[in-house]
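Title: Comparing notes on inverse folding

I've been comparing how different people in this forum approach sequence design from structure. To keep things fair, I'm posting one structure and asking everyone to reply with a full sequence. Here's the target:
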């Protein structure tokens, strides 16, 4: 069924349509993890330039990648109930305008990072952008049911980028933050994929619930959550963090394991989205605990 543009009397302002292209909630979470990486890279407060300009550049790059994702996924979005109201499927913004907007964001991001932060952060951010916007969206998403596992590396990069903005190098502790997000991504996204399985099947996207079934995916969510629990203890084991973080991690992991177990044994329709929403809060509070522990280390 064709999707009609917004009626003129109900059309949102143009700036809101462009803002929607950037997936602001996703960019906010990405930027938050990058800011945590920036702050953890220094014993005290980091220098102002990498804190401000580093995270500004990372946020702009994330917005650029999200916009490119909208363009590449336009035809998929038209077939999915969750995404058919986005600006491109509705005709609110043209592909050409969206690509121009993405180019503007990308140039701004690379300029800020290269000239006001450091070249390593700019190069790593560019690789992350290409990894998500091109390798994941244009290839992996359509090629394999392990798309989100492999492509998750791009989404796990922001805390490393934030750390590198301060130190000018890739630190082992930053890679721990990368590993946490990398392992968190599959149970987070597969919960959503279970809820939207019919949409993905209709669009021909080989998400795990489509290719291997919902029951198998529920098991994978549980197994990855167990793995995530182990991985999130590493900052304490390596003495990167202390008891404040350990207590928060144990509590959050207990909740996540409970949700994953209930998802495995119950077929209640609302559970996948509840798990998905909790996983977002989980990551935010986990990184907040890292930050609190860093400044109130016990």
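Reply #1:
Here's my take.
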């Amino acid at each position: 069924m064709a999707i009609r543009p917004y009626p003129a009397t109900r059309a949102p302002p143009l700036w809101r349509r462009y803002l929607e292209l950037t997936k602001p909630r996703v960019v906010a979470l990405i930027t938050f993890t990058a800011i945590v990486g920036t702050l953890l890279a220094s014993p005290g407060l980091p220098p102002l330039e990498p804190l401000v300009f580093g995270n500004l550049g990372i946020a702009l790059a994330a917005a650029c990648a999200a916009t490119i994702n909208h363009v590449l996924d336009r035809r998929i979005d038209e077939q999915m109930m969750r995404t058919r109201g986005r600006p491109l499927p509705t005709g609110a913004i043209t592909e050409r305008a969206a690509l121009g907007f993405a180019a503007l964001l990308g140039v701004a991001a690379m300029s800020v990072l290269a000239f006001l932060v450091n070249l390593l952060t700019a190069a790593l951010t560019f690789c992350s952008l290409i990894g998500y916007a091109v390798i994941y969206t244009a290839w992996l998403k359509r090629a394999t049911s392990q798309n989100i596992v492999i492509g998750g590396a791009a989404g796990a990069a922001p805390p490393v980028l934030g750390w590198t903005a301060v130190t000018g190098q890739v630190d082992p502790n930053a890679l721990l933050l990368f590993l946490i997000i990398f392992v968190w991504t599959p149970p987070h996204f597969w919960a959503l994929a279970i809820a939207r399985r019919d949409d993905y099947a209709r669009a021909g996207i080989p998400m795990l619930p489509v290719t291997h079934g919902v029951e198998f995916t529920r098991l994978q969510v549980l197994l990855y959550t167990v793995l995530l629990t182990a991985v999130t203890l590493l900052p304490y084991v390596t003495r990167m963090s202390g008891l404040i973080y350990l207590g928060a991690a144990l509590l959050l992991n207990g909740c996540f394991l409970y949700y994953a177990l209930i998802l495995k044994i119950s077929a209640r329709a609302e559970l996948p989205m509840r798990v998905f929403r909790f996983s977002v809060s989980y990551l935010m509070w986990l990184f907040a605990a890292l930050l609190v522990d860093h400044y109130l280390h016990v």
